[in-house]
Design goal:
heterodimer; A: 308 residues; mainly alpha; B: 619 residues; two-stranded antiparallel sheet; 22 helices; 64% helix
Chain lengths: 308, 619
């Protein structure tokens, strides 16, 4: 019963807190720009507003366009149930769950891309094409990084991986884990369409990716998409913060505390990155991803070398 | 066995009955599919009973040919391949009855049905044969029947070329298989499979046979680099034949490889690594080639190469599991590979039949000219969508299950128990002579285990292997906890690299192009585009991939979007994987076909948010 309550709490804390992270990122960016910035809870207000509005559908679209936001949201929620928070067990955990985790994010991308193509607009088709191209380079990084974690922790389950990682792991494999965190940070930025790759604030430029694909959505559908995007930010952030806080080797109440602090630090970090960097040109993004891939492979080779 | 013999008999007799209907296409349309469905139904019952756990059924008759007997057997491994063969072929025959109707009178459909039924019978015989000569005979009939089926529209030059490429490729493969069986026969003194065993033979012979099997059967299956015939033959054949060839016929190559592996005893590590390498290369390159296609059926053919790669990957992981004595890896690898055989048979034939419907309805396979079909072909569109999602391996469809098993097998190999890591339980060197074996061989025992665990049933009566010790039993009873470490772990994740991502691109490509534009509308745009393009001949093509500051220059023109998509895809391929030559302009598009900015500007300018073809319906 206690575990059940804990799991429910974990899930709901993620579901509730995820949009807040975006508020933190935007506030950080505003502070850097010398502005006061939007309220921290702006995304909640936006979603509440959108949920009350009507929907407009283009006649070109089919049911795919209407189904995509719901499927995408449910896919990312499924991924959330697999991801442990703060070194506790995940609500759903079994050996090999990390494959399902990666594929759930893949399913989300698949329906988003389909919906973009379904609109029949070249512009959204270009966004879809870029999304697929970059994700084809980003997903191997994610999976190799996770495989390296499997190798380091000795178990093919996310819960067991984070339970097994302690400061001793960091002392033995510290450099590799740093490489993994760096690679995952790049993936975090790419997957969530953050600034070195994509600019979440504009959708009227030809080089946009994610915002372009969801251009035709309105009303509750758009609210679902925004919410799904924030959940994706949350769940990938969880992955990074879980690795990072294992270094502290905390117990009891301090772990969730450190986790919360870690998520906030991550959000601020993303805000800082977005403030001090310009967006990369489209042709340079693959280089960034290949860099991340190299980091992940290096980490993997390092861990495979030193644990066997 | 009676059902299987009956099936063979019906199919062969029916094939000749089809010949009797030469010149009467209406008769052929009835007789051909009826015979195929009847024969398949007769064979399906015994195959399915064996598959769900009945004892293997066999038949052995004396024949005039020396060194062996006419022996057939339906065991679990044969049943895994026989069930898809019979099921898919029967469905494809029903489809073919209508598909061939427009050709009646122009083509000899009776002959086509003759070869179709012969192909079915020979594929069944290939998986049943337990004598090398019988196997080779069935193999050759299968190759020839499918060659004639591919050559259905033989007056087209592209079809002729495809047919010849196929004929040559498949016979080169057969040459390797012939040598393989000669070596096996010389070693064992018999040509019956039951006598083949290399467990006592020199490692060099086992290695030779493994290499011959990988090349020979790999040619049929479509491993890169011997995949050359697939992208030629599959688009050339009629769609129901493509479905059978791609869905089940290439799987006979996988069957042959697995069957030969059961003769070889405990494999050394490099067997597994070879298959993992071949599988990873086929998987990654197959999907990258698929991304660059614009012919729907050619794309599907490359996708077959990719899926065969995944199957080879699973087999490789299974072999590594056998080599390093990890029953979990072995079971997951083999079971995942065999399940993927069944899964791929289902969704690839589905997609080929769907592509046939699209071709039938639209008269073209060029995806650049297709679009908006989901609104007009609702059922076909929905089915292709489901098939595409399944072939991408997305949860909760069947493709995910088999890919999950394969990847989980690989991850299990990576995961180290602390004891395993330190004690080196899995780093025990390969011991060829230290293993006791039953007459069926270690590999075969595990294969059965793989089959039995890989399919949804609980009938594994026999222990997975006689030498399973307490530790191994413990391991299989307690999931991953007792898994051992394998050597060479560093490359184990190569399977992951880019498969999962690429397949998503692949599926999007298939469906996106189908659901994107109405055909009639795109033709209108075509005409307009060509007119405007010809008005600005003096412009040199320019890079379109980074139109950074052009803002509202985004015209509602399908060519730009589609070409850009292709350009970006091929750009990524060339830049990062193939390291091909770098063109001055966008890679992948010939200079004369690239629309220039000036050409685009002459099109009516529209805002991004106000689409000219879209009237919004408010709800």
């Amino acid at each position: 019963m206690k575990t059940l309550l804990l799991h429910a709490f974990m899930l709901f804390s993620g579901l509730i807190a995820a949009p807040f992270l975006l508020g933190v990122i935007n506030r950080t960016k505003a502070l850097f720009a010398g502005r006061k910035g939007a309220p921290l809870f702006q995304l909640y207000f936006d979603m509440a507003k959108l949920l009350r509005k009507g929907v407009t559908y283009s006649r070109t679209t089919t049911w795919i366009f209407r189904a995509a936001p719901v499927i995408g949201l449910s896919a990312v929620m499924t991924a959330m149930t697999l991801m442990p928070l703060a070194r506790m067990s995940a609500p759903l955990s079994f050996p090999g769950d990390l494959v399902l985790f990666a594929y759930c994010l893949g399913l989300m991308r698949f329906v988003t891309v389909l919906a973009a193509l379904d609109t029949g607009s070249s512009f959204e088709g270009m966004g879809a094409s870029r999304e697929v191209q970059f994700s084809a380079l980003a997903e191997p990084v994610l999976i190799i990084a996770i495989a390296a974690l499997v190798c380091a922790a000795g178990s093919p389950s996310l819960t067991a991986i984070f339970a097994a990682m302690t400061r001793a792991t960091w002392q033995a494999l510290g450099p590799a884990l740093v490489l993994i965190v760096a690679a995952l940070l790049v993936i975090f930025l790419v997957e969530n369409a953050r600034i070195p790759v994509d600019d979440p604030n504009t959708h009227l430029e030809l080089t946009m990716i994610h915002e372009v694909m969801v251009l035709d959505y309105s009303g509750p559908d758009l609210a679902f998409i925004l919410y799904a995007a924030s959940l994706k930010l949350w769940v990938l952030g969880t992955l990074i913060v879980n690795i990072a806080i294992s270094f502290l080797d905390l117990h009891g109440f301090f772990t969730p505390l450190a986790f919360t602090a870690g998520m906030l630090v991550l959000a601020v970090l993303v805000g800082i990155i977005e403030s001090i960097m310009a967006r990369l040109s489209l042709l340079k993004v693959p280089r960034l991803l290949m860099g991340a891939l190299v980091l992940a492979v290096l980490a993997f080779a390092f861990i495979a070398r030193f644990t066997s | 066995m009676i059902g299987v013999e009956l099936a063979l008999l019906i199919l062969i007799a029916g094939a000749f009955l089809c010949l009797a209907t030469l010149g009467r296409p209406a008769w052929a349309r009835v007789v051909g599919p009826t015979v195929a469905v009847l024969g398949c139904a007769a064979g399906l019952i015994p195959s399915a009973t064996v598959l769900i756990g009945a004892a293997p059924i066999s038949l052995r008759l004396p024949w005039l040919i020396p060194l062996g007997s006419l022996s057939l057997e339906m065991d679990a491994l044969s049943a895994v391949f026989a069930v898809p063969i019979l099921l898919i072929t029967a469905l494809a025959a029903v489809y073919g009855a209508e598909y061939l109707r427009p050709y009646e009178g122009k083509k000899e459909t009776s002959a086509s049905w003759f070869f179709f039924n012969m192909l079915t019978a020979s594929m069944l015989l290939v998986v049943l044969a337990r004598n090398a000569l019988l196997f080779l005979l069935a193999w050759e009939i299968m190759s020839l029947a499918s060659f004639f089926l591919v050559m259905f529209e033989h007056e087209k030059e592209s079809v002729q070329r495809a047919g010849w490429v196929y004929l040559i490729a498949t016979h080169i493969g057969t040459a390797f298989i012939l040598v393989l069986f000669v070596l096996l026969g010389r070693q064992s003194g018999t040509l019956d499979f039951v006598g083949f065993s290399l467990t006592q033979a020199a490692p060099a012979l086992a290695a030779t046979i493994f290499i011959l099997a990988t090349i020979g059967f790999g040619t049929k299956a479509g491993f890169i680099p011997v995949h050359v015939w697939l992208p030629e033959a599959h688009p050339a054949a009629p769609s129901h034949v493509s479905a059978v060839m791609s869905g089940v016929m290439i799987k006979t190559g996988v069957y042959g490889l697995v069957r030969v592996l059961t003769f070889l005893g405990t494999p050394p590590y490099w067997f597994g690594w070879t298959l993992v390498g071949v599988g990873a290369v086929s998987g990654i390159l197959g999907v990258l080639f698929a991304l660059a296609q614009h012919d729907l059926k050619r794309l599907l053919a490359y996708s077959s190469v990719e899926n065969i790669g995944i199957i080879a990957l699973g087999l490789g992981i299974g072999l590594l599991g056998v080599s390093c004595d990890s029953p979990i890896m072995a079971t997951l690898g083999f079971a995942g590979a065999l399940l993927h055989v069944i899964n791929h048979a289902i969704f690839k034939s589905l997609l080929f039949l769907g592509a046939g419907s699209v071709l039938h309805a639209c008269g073209t396979r060029d995806m650049n000219r297709l679009g908006g079909l989901l609104r007009r072909m609702r059922v076909t569109g929905l089915i292709i969508l489901v098939g595409s999602a399944a072939i991408c391996g997305l949860p909760p469809l069947n493709g995910f299950v088999s890919e999950f098993m394969i990847y989980f097998g690989a991850l299990t190999g990576l995961a180290t128990t602390p004891d395993g890591a330190m004690g080196g339980a899995g780093r025990r060197p390969h011991r060829r002579n230290g293993l006791t074996r039953t007459d069926r061989g270690f590999g075969r025992g595990l294969l059965h285990q793989g089959i039995r665990h890989g399919l949804p049933r609980r009938t594994a009566q026999r222990p997975y292997h006689p030498r399973a010790r307490g530790g191994a039993r413990h391991a299989s009873a307690h999931g991953h906890s007792g898994s051992t470490v394998c050597r060479h772990r560093s490359l184990r994740s190569a399977p992951f690299a880019s498969h999962s991502a690429c397949c998503i691109g692949r599926g999007g490509h298939v469906i996106g192009c189908c659901s994107k534009y109405g055909v009639d509308r795109s033709r209108a745009v075509d005409a307009r585009f060509n007119r405007s393009r010809s008005s600005g001949p003096g412009d040199t093509p320019r890079v379109l991939a980074c139109p950074s500051a052009e803002g509202p220059e985004c015209e509602h023109d399908r060519h730009v979007g589609l070409r850009l998509r292709r350009a970006i895809a091929s750009h990524a391929v060339q830049r990062f994987l193939l390291r091909g030559s770098r063109h001055a302009h966008v890679q992948g598009i010939p200079a004369d076909k690239l629309p220039s900015y000036a050409a685009i500007r002459t099109l009516p300018r529209v805002g991004i948010l106000r689409k000219p073809h879209t009237r919004c319906a408010s709800r």
